[in-house]
Every structure is written in structure tokens, then in C-alpha cells.
Specification:
heterodimer; A: 543 residues; alpha/beta; Rossmann fold; 6-stranded mixed sheet; 20 helices; B: 398 residues; mainly alpha; two-stranded antiparallel ribbon
Chain lengths: 543, 398
């Protein structure tokens, strides 16, 4: 038996010159439950991708560092190889075939077979399935995970929580599994189901299988895991035993978030926005955006502020802007300056002087195969009939594009926003991410909005350009007095530019924090816990 | 006062309890009776409704067929004879559609391509005048490599056109029809040496329109012709279809069958589980094409005449209409549905001209009706399928 099942040393990975993992060390013993926590983009998934030898790693130039599995130095060239060597993965999204029974899913592509004469002629795929063995194996696996259901039920009708257990049963059933990776397994489960999941994870680890447990729920990680590794910005910032005195929720939360936030000295306003002047009031907003559902949020936006909306991926923060703008089906009330904006109607939202920069820049935000000028002017043309002139006399005329004014406006925008392009007629597809984002901003500005909703403005943009986009937003806020609602997964970015930051968890508002609040407070809010004042005063180190 | 006041109390209480108890009991009984009865009735009516909804197409066709049989005024023995022949002639072709549906490739409109391979085999046999069962086997042997190759090609193309397999198959059929005509209209006598001058056009290039399949006509049918009452039953031909049906059912239980079912349901999950999705789809397409070739050979030995440029034309359409009449859908088909559908569809084919003659004084109307039915059922089935898909997708989003 080996001392460690898995040892990873000095793992370093660049994506196109962008370092996402730096000298990561991870060691897991047999029978150990090893928690990995970190924000989105901390490098957890990349680390797992490297472990599994995912094609995405090799297509982007491989990685540096050493992996030893059971004491033998290896680097898996494909997921298949990793699986065959005894690493199992419980996926975040379900890898189940709905029309198959539970048993068929557990044994998918690993069905025990009985040999037939035809198989000797035509190859192994003509062997018959050994049904009695399929059923008995599945029963045993289901027992291990503690799910008492009929293995002959079709998966299609099962509750979501059960599907997760079926998936775990499949991994458990695999012979010779030495390491099992759970990628946020409790994200979709109810509390009771999470409890059961944790007890079956414990059972699995008791049988000597090592477990890597990736989760956002810090309390779960603390209760379940033997060791915890905290990652931040591609580095391991701490590795501790769960029973260490330092292993507390707010200590971990602090480590997860804690990076130096440099607040550039943006110009001060003459009057600070306050609660006495509310420009937009969101009441009981529910949004049905797949993967980012919002379950009732009430939020007031002050005139002239930059309001940040933060939280982990999948918790619903992105759903808010999309709901307000009518991009996804929504319920509730949104009131701007005393008039209610009808929901589910993007045109109406634009008419009320709201503008939106979508997080899905390439599909929703831009028409990639049109020119810069087209992209800048299209929204204003549609919503406000700008950049048009009338041919004919009076009401009899037809309205056509006014090329001159459109050209003039886009040239202005290219100059003001410093969009790097060969000219207004260049295709947007050819621009870099940062410049594409600026085109989006220019298009929003053409609408002359009072409120600008910005969703993930720096996603997929290189580091230098990120800062320019943020500076641009702050300028708009300070100079034009535009109210900005900025949604971002990058907390540092929010803390840099926002006046207040609303943290969303599970589709609900957890807390509204000041950018100067402590790391621990942010970390806890992002894992769904509103830090009580008493807890914060007990905190061991102030940041 | 007190004793007097106390005395009636227990009585009252008892009576109260009694009344309450009775009421309760009665209520319980009633509610039980009501609930049980209702539940049973509900269950039954639910089961009935489910059965009806799921089998609405075959049920409708049974009714239409019964009516048409009545209106046709033909004796049952005559109809039975016709149906038996048509069943023996067509069911192999219809069965060849089952495997691609299982594999999620939808209804194989590319079946015409398999039929072309079968016809190539028959043309070879007719040219060489190979008689009897040996002739049929030779035709199959010639068709087999052609069908395997073409099936591989269809499979490859369908892997490129995932999600649009049916239209791809149909267009491929049209395309291959052009290639087929090129080969037999211009290739024969120029590139391909051909000795049988009787089968060729007077110019010496290309085949005549019709080829009499003298050497293999009815050889399979007559191999084992059994008389049951006044009905002659070609047992050998029917037996082949039965064997094929059994083979397909058996395939379900093999590893290959399980893989085919898995990829038919979810390609991505199958891929992640390590099933070779593209390869399995190609295998399914090859199986279907080869079966289509054999099916066409069986079909044509019964007809006895090969329309070189025409016989394969509507093979796929009619086979697909038949399997749909049996209750199959784009995503679900069984051997039973294929056989039932062939029976009903061809019964309707037989009786509708007579029924049209008797009802409306024109056999043409019945003729129109059956063409209308064939294309109509396909159109409705395709529309239903895309509706279901849209609903499933909406469900996924939720």
C-alpha cells in the first residue's frame, strides 16, 4: 500500500500566457477525504482537468509539474486512462441516460457479459448482457451509497437528488477505484440529501478510497473533510487538517477571498448617493434563468451609485440583470423613478432608459459578423429610431438609414472609448475581447441610458484591458452621473469600483457589504452565511 | 342539584360518542368505499387513456381498415390471401428500419440506397441467368459488399449531419439515385462489360427499363408454400422475416444492442461513458442498409419484374409509412410495431380501391386515399416528433 494515493507537485499551467495554476501541491492519502475550496477561477477545475488528462490541457500546451499516482509517476493522457487507473469522477451535471433503468445506468458501458457463439465470429459486442449480475451488482452499489430504490426504475422520473446518488453508485461499482473526485456534488441537493450524501461519502472513504471533495459550502467541507486545501488565484494558500484549531469557517473564508484590494483613487463625488434618492427599486424579483435562478430578491439602487452584485457562479447573481431587462422570464416588480417597468419585455426596459451589457457578449451582446458601426448603432436604431432619415414628404416618407450620422457617432465613440480597430467598418469578430466590450459599451451609450446594467464585463478579457474597461465604467459614472449595476464573479473587481456590493447566494440576497468590509465577511457571505456582528469581533485576525 | 345535574352527563357523553363514533365509522366507510372505487376507476380510466393515447395511430388504422374491409365487399379469404402475400413481400424491408430508430438516427429514408444495392445483385443474377435459390443467394452475395460500403458511407455522412439524419438520408437517396442511373444507364456496356444483350437498350449502352427476373421469380415463395384452408402461405419468405424479427430482438440483449440503445438516447453521456458513438451509429446504418438490400431482393423475387430505374423509388416512403402505422415513432420502434404496421398498411392498400369503387363509384378515389395516407402519416409523425422534442427541450431548460 502506498503512503499517498495521489501526489501532485509543482503543478503550473498557463493558458495563452495567462498563468492559472502556479506551483500547486496536493497530496491525498488512502481513505482521506480531502476538501478543496476556492472561488470561481481559483484553479480548482483546471487542477482536476490536469489530473484527468483532459484534452483541453493538452490542446493548450500541457502543464508543468509531477503527478504520482500510488507512488508511480504518471501523467494521464486522456480521461479514459485516468478512469482505467482507478480515478473516478462524480460530475456536476448528471451523466445519466434518462430512458435507462438505474441498473443500466450504473453499469453503463461496463455491463457484465455472457459469451455467445456469435461473439466468437463477430466480436465481443455480440455477447449477451448478464442481467442477473447487472442487477446484483447495482443492488450492492446502491446499498453502499445508502439509496434504497428499485434498481429497475427508469432514471427519468427520479428526483434530482437521487440522480446524484445513482451517479455515485456508478463510481462505487467500478472495480479498483482508489480515488474519487466529487465536483460540487451538493450544489443541487436539498439539505437532507446533502446529509445523506456526506454519510455515503464517509462510507466510501472508510473502505479505503481516497476522496477529493470540491464544494462551495464551507460548513460541509469543515464537517466532512479530514484535510482542507484552500486555493486562490491559482495557488494553494493553505492546507490544513480539519481538526486544526485554525480551521474555522471565517478563517477559511478569509483565505479564500483574501487578496490585497488596491482601490485606485477614483475622483470623489460632490454628493454621495444615499438611500433618500432611489432610482430603481427591485421587489421580489424571481427569474427563471437556467443555472442562475433568482428566487425573490428585493434591492434598491441609489441614484448615481455603482452597485456591485457578487456571488459564486450559479447562485443567481447573473439572473438579476437578465430578469430586469426581460431577457429571461421574470416575476416581481421593478420600479424606476416611480413608474413600474413591465417585465419580460426588453424593449420596454430600453424605453425606460435602462441599457444592458450581457455576460454573453459573443451571442447576445454583439453581431460578430457586422461592422463596428453597425453594432454601435443597431440598438439605438431599433429602440429610439436614431440614425435614420426620412425619404419623401412628411408622413408619407419611408425611413431609411442615415449613414452620415451613424458614421459620425461611431467615429466619436471609437475616439472617446479608445476602441482599437481599423475603422468603423471593421468586423467586430476581428477585435480583441476588450475592444469588443467597448463596442458593447458604445452601443449602450447610444441609447443614452440612465442606468447601465453590466454583466461580467471583464470575462474573457486580458488583464490590461480589464482595468481599462473598469476605468471606463467609473468615468461614465462620475462624469455622466450614470447609475451602474455591475455584476461580476470577480470580487476584487467589484471591491475596486463599487460603492456597495450585494452578495447573492442560492438565488437570494445574503447581505449588502461595503467594499471595505473584511475578507472574512465577504467569504462567508459568498458561501451563504451572513456574518453576525459577534462572529466578526471574535475573528482572530483583522485584515 | 349536583347529582341530578351530573346524572345525565355520562349518558349525554355516551350518546355523543356513539353518534360521533357511528358518524365517524359511516364517514370512514363511505370515504373508503368512495376512495377505493374512485381510485380504481381513476386507475382504470388512466390506464385506458394512456393505452389509447399511446396507441392512437394503430387503433385508428384498425378502425379504418375494418370499415374499408366492410365497404370493399370482398370475401375474407381473398383479402387474407392478398395480405399474406404482401406481408411476406414487405415485412423484411419494414423490419430493416428498426435498428436505426433504436440508434437515434430516426427513420431511415436512406433505405432506397440499400434497395439499389439489392437490385444490383438481382441484375447480376438476371444477366447470368443463375436459377433458383442459388440465384437468390448469389444476388445477396453481390449486394452484401455494396450495401456494406454504402451503409458505411451513409453512416459517415449522418455522423456529420447529427440531428438532421432523416433529411440527410432522404437527400442522399436522391443523390444516389442519380449515381445509380449513371451506372446502369451509361456505365453498362461502356465501362462495365455486359454480355446479356437482351437486357440492354438497342444502342448497346445502358439497361432496358424492365428486367424479367425469370430465373429467381417466386423461388423463395415457392420453396415452402403451405395451404391453410384456401389461403396459400409462403412459409419460407414469412419465416425469413420471423427470423429477422427474432434476431433484432436478440440484438437488444447484446452489448452492441445496449450501446445502440444508449447512443439513441443520449450521445454525449454515452461518449463520456466510453461508448464509441460514431462507430456504433455507422454499424447501425450498415445493418439497416444490408437488411434493406436483402429486403428488396425478397420483395422483387415475389414481384418477378424489376423496373430498373423505378423499383427502389418509393421503397423507403412506404416502409416508413408502414412502420409508423404500426405505432412506431421517430425515436421508438419495435419488431411488433413493424409487423403490425405492415399488416395494417397493406390491408388498407388492398381494400381502399374496392372501397372507393363501392362507395364513390371510382377506384381512383381509393387509390388517392392510400397515397394520401402514406404521406400523411409520415408528415403527422414528423410534426409530432419535433413537437415532442421542443417540449423535451423546454423541460430541460426548466
Amino acid at each position: 500500500m502506498c503512503g499517498y494515493v495521489l501526489e501532485m507537485y509543482g503543478i503550473t499551467k498557463d493558458y495563452y500566457g495567462n498563468r492559472v495554476l502556479n506551483d500547486v501541491i496536493l497530496k491525498v492519502r488512502p481513505g482521506e477525504i480531502h476538501g478543496i475550496v476556492g472561488e470561481n477561477g481559483a484553479g480548482k477545475s483546471t487542477l482536476m482537468n490536469i489530473l484527468f488528462g483532459m484534452p483541453v490541457i493538452y490542446n493548450t500546451g500541457g502543464f508543468q509539474g509531477k503527478i504520482r499516482f500510488c507512488g508511480v509517476e504518471t501523467a494521464f493522457a486522456s480521461p479514459r486512462q485516468a478512469l482505467e487507473s482507478g480515478i473516478g469522477m462524480v460530475h456536476q451535471e448528471f451523466m445519466l441516460i434518462p430512458g435507462f433503468t438505474v441498473a443500466e445506468n450504473i453499469k453503463l458501458n461496463r455491463e457484465p457479459l455472457k459469451s455467445t457463439w456469435l461473439a466468437k465470429l463477430a466480436g465481443g459486442r455480440m455477447n449477451r448482457l448478464d442481467w442477473p449480475k447487472i442487477i446484483s451488482d447495482s443492488k450492492a452499489a446502491l446499498n453502499t451509497v445508502g439509496l434504497g430504490i428499485d434498481e429497475m426504475l427508469p432514471v427519468a422520473g427520479l428526483p434530482v437528488g437521487y440522480m446524484q446518488f445513482v451517479e455515485i453508485a456508478r463510481e462505487v461499482d467500478k472495480q479498483g477505484v482508489k480515488l474519487l473526485v466529487f465536483d460540487e456534488p451538493t450544489a443541487l441537493l436539498t439539505e437532507a440529501e446533502s446529509e445523506q450524501l456526506m454519510s455515503s461519502v464517509r462510507k466510501i472513504s472508510d473502505s479505503g478510497v481516497a476522496v477529493i471533495f470540491i464544494s462551495h459550502r464551507l460548513d460541509e467541507v469543515l464537517r466532512l473533510c479530514d484535510k482542507i486545501t484552500v486555493m486562490r488565484d491559482g495557488e494553494v494558500v493553505a492546507s490544513m487538517g480539519a481538526s486544526d484549531p485554525g480551521a474555522t469557517i471565517h478563517r477559511i473564508a478569509e483565505l479564500m477571498v483574501g487578496r490585497e484590494v488596491v482601490r485606485p483613487s477614483y475622483p470623489k463625488r460632490t454628493t454621495d448617493p444615499g438611500d433618500d434618492d432611489i432610482i430603481l427599486s427591485i421587489q421580489d424579483l424571481m427569474v427563471d434563468m437556467p443555472g442562475e435562478e433568482v428566487h425573490g430578491i428585493t434591492l434598491s439602487v441609489r441614484r448615481g451609485e455603482i452597485l456591485g452584485i457578487g456571488g459564486l457562479a450559479g447562485q443567481g447573481k447573473i439572473g438579476i440583470s437578465n430578469g430586469v431587462m426581460g431577457v429571461y422570464p421574470a416575476q416581481g416588480r421593478v420600479i424606476k423613478d416611480g413608474t413600474e417597468i413591465p417585465l419580460n419585455n426588453p424593449a420596454e426596459a430600453y424605453r425606460q432608459k435602462l441599457a444592458f451589457l450581457s455576460e454573453d457578449r459573443k451571442n447576445v451582446g454583439l453581431i460578430l459578423d457586422r461592422s463596428v458601426e453597425n453594432n454601435i448603432t443597431v440598438a439605438a436604431t431599433l429602440v429610439k429610431s436614431m440614425f435614420q432619415k426620412t425619404l419623401g414628404i412628411g408622413r408619407m416618407g419611408i425611413r431609411i438609414r442615415d449613414k452620415k450620422s451613424a458614421r459620425k457617432f461611431s467615429e466619436e465613440m471609437i475616439r472617446d472609448l479608445d476602441i482599437r480597430c481599423t475603422g468603423p467598418s471593421q468586423l467586430v469578430r476581428r477585435l480583441s475581447g476588450g475592444n469588443q466590450q467597448k463596442v458593447c459599451i458604445a452601443r449602450a451609450l447610444a441609447l443614452e441610458p440612465e442606468i447601465l446594467l453590466v454583466s461580467e464585463p471583464t470575462r474573457g478579457i486580458d488583464v490590461g484591458a480589464k482595468q481599462r474597461i473598469l476605468d471606463l465604467l467609473v468615468n461614465l459614472n462620475r462624469e455622466k452621473g450614470m447609475t451602474i449595476i455591475l455584476t461580476s464573479s470577480e470580487l476584487a473587481e467589484l471591491r475596486q469600483v463599487c460603492d456597495r456590493i450585494a452578495v447573492i447566494y442560492g438565488g437570494r440576497l445574503v447581505d449588502i457589504l461595503s467594499p471595505d468590509d473584511s475578507n472574512a465577511r465577504f467569504g462567508m457571505a459568498m458561501s451563504g452565511r451572513r456574518a453576525e456582528a459577534s462572529e466578526l469581533t471574535r475573528r482572530p485576525t483583522a485584515s | 342539584m349536583q347529582p341530578m345535574g351530573k346524572a345525565p352527563m355520562p349518558m349525554d357523553k355516551d350518546r355523543e360518542c356513539e353518534v360521533l363514533g357511528q358518524g365517524f365509522k359511516r364517514g370512514l366507510k363511505d370515504s373508503l368505499k368512495y376512495d377505493l372505487g374512485n381510485a380504481l376507476r381513476n386507475d382504470l380510466s388512466n390506464a385506458m387513456r394512456n393505452f389509447l393515447v399511446q396507441n392512437i395511430v394503430p387503433i385508428t388504422f384498425v378502425i379504418v381498415c375494418l370499415l374499408a374491409v366492410r365497404w370493399s365487399g370482398k370475401p375474407l379469404a381473398f383479402l387474407l390471401q392478398e395480405v399474406v402475400f404482401r406481408l411476406s413481400r414487405n415485412s423484411f424491408l419494414v423490419l430493416s428500419l428498426v435498428v436505426p430508430v433504436m440508434a437515434g438516427l430516426g427513420l431511415n429514408f436512406g433505405l432506397v440506397i440499400g434497395a439499389m444495392a439489392g437490385q444490383a445483385g438481382l441484375i447480376f443474377v438476371a444477366a447470368k441467368q443463375i436459377p433458383g435459390i442459388l440465384g437468390l443467394l448469389t444476388a445477396c452475395l453481390v449486394a452484401l459488399p455494396l450495401a456494406l460500403g454504402l451503409g458505411y458511407m451513409i453512416g459517415k455522412i449522418m455522423n456529420m449531419a447529427k440531428g438532421r439524419e432523416m433529411i440527410a438520408g432522404m437527400i442522399l437517396g436522391f443523390f444516389m439515385n442519380g449515381v445509380y442511373q449513371l451506372v446502369f444507364l451509361f456505365g453498362i456496356g461502356t465501362v462495365i462489360p455486359f454480355s446479356n444483350k437482351d437486357m440492354m437498350l438497342p444502342s448497346g449502352i445502358g439497361l432496358r427499363n424492365t428486367v424479367e427476373l425469370v430465373s429467381v421469380k417466386w423461388v423463395l415463395d415457392e420453396l415452402l408454400m403451405v395451404r391453410i384452408g384456401s389461403v396459400r402461405v409462403p412459409l419460407a419468405t414469412l419465416g425469413l422475416s420471423a427470423v429477422l424479427g427474432a434476431l433484432i430482438t436478440w440484438l437488444y440483449r447484446t452489448k452492441l444492442g445496449q450501446d445502440i440503445r444508449a447512443i439513441g438516447q443520449d450521445m454525449r453521456v454515452s461518449q463520456v461513458a466510453g461508448i464509441q458513438v460514431d462507430r456504433t451509429r455507422i454499424v447501425a446504418m450498415m445493418i439497416s442498409t444490408v437488411l434493406g438490400a436483402f429486403g428488396q431482393i425478397i420483395f422483387l423475387q415475389d414481384i418477378g419484374t424489376l423496373n430498373v430505374y423505378d423499383s427502389h423509388g418509393q421503397i423507403a416512403t412506404f416502409a416508413i409509412a408502414a412502420i409508423l402505422v404500426g405505432g412506431a415513432t421517430v425515436s421508438r420502434a419495435t419488431v411488433g410495431q413493424a409487423l403490425l404496421g405492415t399488416f395494417l398498411f397493406h390491408l388498407l392498400f388492398i381494400v381502399s380501391p374496392y372501397a372507393g369503387q363501392n362507395l364513390l363509384g371510382s377506384a381512383q378515389v381509393g387509390e388517392y386515399f392510400r397515397v394520401f395516407v402514406a404521406y400523411g402519416i409520415i408528415a403527422v409523425s414528423l410534426a409530432l416528433h419535433s413537437m415532442q422534442q421542443a417540449r423535451a427541450q423546454a423541460g430541460l431548460k426548466r
